[in-house]
Design brief:
Elements (H helix, E strand, L loop, with lengths): L1 E5 L3 H12 L3 E5 L3 H10 L1 E4 L3 E4 L2 E3 L9 E4 L6 H12 L5 E4 L17 E6 L2 E6 L2 E6 L3 E7 L15 E3 L3 H22 L5 H4 L1 H18 L3 H14 L6 H7 L10 H11 L4 H17 L1
Parallel strand pairs: 1-2, 1-6, 2-5, 3-10, 6-7, 7-8, 11-12
Antiparallel strand pairs: 3-4, 8-11, 9-10
Helix pairs in contact: 4-6, 4-7, 4-8, 4-10, 6-7, 6-9, 9-10
Length: 292
């Protein structure tokens, strides 16, 4: 199967390595020419249960090559420009697409693509160590759901050691993950802690519960079920550093607008008060201003 992955961050590198190891033909589209050249020369250095050097194709320019599946693995704020490039490069011949961003802000930008679209969530821990090296920190699953059309390519990708599950309701799938992100990402970013400390520190856990309560109310999800899901993720990823904390440490823009920002906008439309969500949103924005 021919797969093009736009975005060579931690998740892009992880997906490229795992799919290439399963004998798919993978091309990574990098933001920087330097990274593309390095991947071309060295391949991906995958560090998981085993260490492997994985050969992939790489480029810094999206091209209209014949592709079975196009995976968009950039951050949410980069989706509009990527969608514009996809429409420009492929025209009417756009392949099946899978968007795997945090949050739900990217959904509005998919309206300009009248084709087969999947959305998904990644339940794996991955850390980009350098331009070509990815550490597979936590083995999990991938969940995908159809947003539009009848995508077929995804059914050939699932494997025993890298399972992909199909979910019927894309909204519930993304909303459930959004609650997790709304609770864990901002708090770990603000306090500079690993995910597990949100359960072991009683004061942090109190704030966590209130964030889950607010976001589940806004998204019309069951609170107790949402809280159990967040607790499970905290336990499973106890030693992990959230992507938001990593972005703050690296002086990069976070995805707070695609995560808590969505809750704030929906709460305003529904006339709901979400003070904890407003606090963590403003706190992350303030930290961005200091560190960027």
């Amino acid at each position: 199967m021919r797969i093009t992955i736009i975005g060579a961050g931690s998740i892009g590198l992880l997906l490229a390595a795992k799919f290439a190891m399963a004998n798919h033909i993978v091309t990574l589209v990098c933001h920087e020419v330097q990274q593309a050249n390095k991947l071309k020369a060295e391949g991906i250095q995958y560090r998981g249960t085993k260490v492997s050097q994985v050969t992939v194709q790489s480029t810094s320019v999206l091209e209209d090559d014949k592709v079975d599946l196009l995976i968009v693995a950039v951050k949410s704020q980069q989706v509009p420009s990527v969608v514009e490039s996809i429409n420009k490069v492929f025209g009417e011949e756009i392949p099946d697409m899978l968007f795997i961003q945090n949050g739900m802000a990217h959904i509005q930008h998919l309206e300009s693509i009248s084709h087969n679209i999947l959305v998904g969530i990644i339940n794996h821990g991955a850390k980009k160590l350098d331009d070509v090296t990815v550490l597979h920190k936590g083995v999990g699953t991938i969940e995908v759901s159809t947003y539009r059309g009848v995508p077929r390519s995804i059914h050939n990708l699932s494997s025993e050691d890298f399972p992909i599950y199909y979910v019927k309701d894309w909204y519930h799938m993304l909303a459930r993950k959004l609650v997790v992100n709304c609770a864990i990402n901002p708090l770990t970013g603000i306090f500079g802690i690993e995910n597990g400390e949100l359960l072991t520190n009683a004061r942090f856990y109190t704030i966590l519960r209130e964030l889950v309560r607010e976001s589940s109310q806004v998204l019309e999800l069951d609170y107790e079920e949402a809280l159990c899901n967040v607790q499970a993720v905290c336990r499973q990823t106890a030693r992990n550093t959230s992507s938001m904390l990593a972005d703050l440490k690296g002086g990069r823009q976070t995805e707070i607008d695609a995560i808590t920002g969505v809750i704030l906008k929906q709460a305003e439309l529904k006339g709901l008060d979400v003070p904890y969500s407003r606090f963590v949103y403003d706190s992350i924005k303030g930290l961005e201003k200091i560190r960027n």
